[in-house]
């Protein structure tokens, strides 16, 4: 398995970084997880555009994880992509189709079949992929209920299994324990280093994980600890590097 972090930025734009996006090549399948701003340019840079991708997985609907999807679909249409594309969404697929229509990006005009599915269905199509709901959006529960909004509060983490080991991509989480069972015994974990408390991430050094890639920003507490106490298995995630498992 090989993977490239196409975007490692947080919700706040930062010079020199793109928003969240991860490309994975496992067993000859080309998978894209999240589509933050800048993903189309990154795919062009790495020659992963047009007919390369097999599926896109969106972890949740925060803008820094999905805002690049619309430009990506437009690019694939302009490139006259032909290969079918699967798009796995965290919730409410009809709402996304309405957004595409609002943007005058009509699926009926696409040059390729776009199959929109639920993230929970991904395991039916890709035996390498396991998904798990996380706690990231639960802070909005009261607001959603009080305002009677249709939001389902779904946010997903992903585990991708290959012949030489597994990769976990937590996307955004509030507590590491919400994905503990998913990341157990993984070779590499790409983890949100900004939202969880620092001690939760530090304890991963005792979990049997071989490599932890810190992405999506970093909390001041965790940054200070790692500056004073470097730990080999912890690395700052870098864009445009091809990692191997």
Spans of at least 5 consecutive residues with low confidence? none
What's the total number of strands? Answer: 13
Please identify which CATH superfamily we are dealing with: Ribonuclease Z/Hydroxyacylglutathione hydrolase-like
Q: What structural class results from the helix and strand content?
A: alpha/beta
Annotated CATH architecture: 4-Layer Sandwich
Radius of gyration, taken over Cα atoms and rounded to an integer in Å:
18 Å
What is the compact description of this entry?
The chain is an alpha/beta fold and 245 residues long. It is built from 9 helices and 13 strands. The mean pLDDT is 96.
List the helices and strands and how they pair.
Elements: E1 2-7, E2 21-26, E3 29-33, H1 39-45, E4 55-57, H2 63-66, H3 69-78, E5 85-89, H4 93-102, E6 114-118, H5 122-125, E7 129-133, H6 141-146, E8 156-162, E9 165-169, H7 180-183, E10 188-192, H8 198-202, E11 211-215, H9 220-228, E12 234-236, E13 242-244
Parallel strand pairs: 3-4, 4-5, 5-6, 9-10, 10-11, 11-12
Antiparallel strand pairs: 1-2, 1-13, 2-3, 7-8, 8-9
């Amino acid at each position: 398995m090989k993977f490239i972090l196409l975007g490692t930025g947080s919700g706040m734009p930062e010079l020199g970084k793109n928003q969240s996006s991860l490309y994975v090549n496992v067993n000859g399948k080309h998978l894209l997880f999240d589509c933050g701003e800048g993903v189309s340019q990154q795919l062009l840079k790495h020659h992963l555009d047009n007919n390369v991708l097999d599926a896109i997985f969106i972890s949740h609907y925060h803008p820094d994880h999905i805002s690049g999807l619309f430009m990506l679909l437009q690019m694939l249409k302009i490139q006259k992509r032909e290969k079918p594309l699967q798009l796995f969404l965290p919730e409410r697929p009809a709402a996304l189709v309405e957004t595409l229509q609002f943007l005058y990006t009509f699926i009926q005009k696409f040059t390729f079949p776009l199959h929109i599915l639920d993230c929970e269905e991904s395991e039916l199509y890709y035996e390498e992929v396991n998904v798990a709901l996380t706690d990231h959006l639960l802070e909005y529960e009261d607001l959603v209920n009080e305002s009677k909004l249709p939001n389902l509060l779904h946010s997903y983490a992903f585990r991708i299994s290959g012949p030489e080991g597994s990769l976990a991509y937590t996307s955004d989480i509030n507590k590491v324990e919400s994905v503990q069972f998913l990341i157990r015994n993984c070779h590499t974990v790409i983890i949100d280093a900004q939202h969880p408390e620092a001690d939760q991430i530090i304890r991963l050094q005792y979990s049997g994980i071989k490599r932890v890639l810190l992405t999506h920003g970093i909390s001041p507490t965790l940054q200070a600890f790692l500056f004073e106490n470097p730990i080999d298995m912890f690395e700052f995630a870098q864009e445009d590097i091809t990692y191997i498992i």
